[in-house]
From TrEMBL:
NCBIfam families, alphabetized: fliM_switch (TIGR01397)
Pfam families: FliM, FliMN_C
The protein's name: Flagellar motor switch protein FliM
Family: Belongs to the FliM family.
Length: 332
């Protein structure tokens, strides 16, 4: 009961039972303590942690943005693609969830093992093909009657679109995806065993006036070699050691030439709004700081140095007396 939300009537009935003695609070507590068994379905093995699923979601959010740009340029119409969900389910359950006749693209992703399935809802696929052929993007669902020319047009279009998958994974693994199979009936497609765990990335897709889903089915066997890289620790760690010396030198050169505002603060004071409004030429505002006190030198509002005012030639200048260290400033 701890995981359920009770209605007001159920709460009233429970309180009434406790007050009349029909139920004992201690008995309920003992029952809850004794019930420590967690239900686990071996047919739905959860082989990816939430952390890993979040990493996969981030990768495919980037892929969705790349696809949006690619299809917008190719189709010359309004295109919007975004990740709707990321779940791990048995392969059999995924096959049952998609239409009986749909557009299925099977991709090899060497050097990773296994294959990745990209399922495109027929409404979306036909709208894309209509735009490629010079139409307005009208969607007509007739998957079971696809001609050889239509199959070739679709397979070429999605093969070129999937090249963006390489860029989406570039920070984690270097893959070389290519289309290996084109199918319309999921019953004729057996990539892995029915109980194999797969990650399904579902993407909401809008092409002009047509809308539907694009689903990516990724078997566990394909991701197994890179699972350790899907952790937050891997994403957050620095890649400094992996940079080439030339890249590091160029970055340091760019940083050294960057301009930052430096402000020497002579002092500060507080006055009332009335005094401020009545200020006139010749009035004197006393500062909190004494004339022989060092001056604070601020960078982006943070005091980094102290110094004293002076003159170099005919210009006013500040001589740095001390470099301040503290807070998160631990370097030169």
């Amino acid at each position: 009961m701890s995981g359920e939300v009770l209605s007001q009537n159920e709460i009233d009935a429970l309180l009434s039972a406790l007050s009349t003695g029909e139920m004992n609070a201690e008995d309920i507590k003992k029952e809850e303590e004794a019930k420590k068994v967690k239900v686990y379905d071996f047919k739905r093995a959860l082989r990816f942690s939430k952390d890993q699923i979040r990493s996969l979601t981030r990768i495919h959010e980037n892929f969705a943005r790349l696809l949006t740009t690619f299809f917008s340029a190719q189709l010359r119409t309004y295109v919007q693609i975004s990740v709707a969900s990321a779940d791990q389910i048995p392969y059999e359950e995924f096959i049952r969830s998609i239409p009986k006749m749909t557009i299925l693209n099977v991709f090899e992703v060497p050097p990773l093992e296994g294959r990745i399935l990209m399922e495109i809802n027929p409404n979306i696929a036909y709208a894309m093909m209509d735009r490629v052929m010079g139409g307005k993007g009208t969607s007509v669902n007739k998957v079971d009657n696809l001609t050889e020319i239509e199959k070739r047009i679709m397979s070429n279009m999605f093969d070129r679109a999937f090249e963006n998958y390489q860029e989406a994974w570039a920070n984690m693994v270097d893959i070389d995806p290519y289309l290996s199979e084109f199918e319309v009936n999921p019953q004729f497609l057996q990539m892995v065993s029915p109980n194999e765990t797969v990650v399904v990335i579902s993407m909401n897709t809008t092409i002009g006036d047509a809308s539907g889903m694009i689903n990516l089915c990724i078997p566990h066997v394909a991701l197994e070699p890179i699972i350790p890289k899907l952790s937050v620790h891997y994403w957050m760690q620095t890649n400094h050691k992996e940079r080439e010396p030339a890249q590091t030198e160029l970055m340091e050169k760019k940083l050294k030439n960057a301009f930052i505002p430096l402000v020497a603060q002579l002092g500060s004071s507080e006055i009332t709004i009335e005094d401020f409004l009545n200020l006139d030429k010749g009035d004197i505002i006393p500062l909190v700081q004494k004339i022989d006190d060092p001056i604070k030198i601020n960078i982006e509002g943070t005091t980094k140095f102290v110094g004293q005012p002076g003159i170099v030639g005919k210009r006013m200048a500040i001589q740095i007396l001390e470099v301040l260290r503290g807070g998160d400033d631990d370097s030169e």
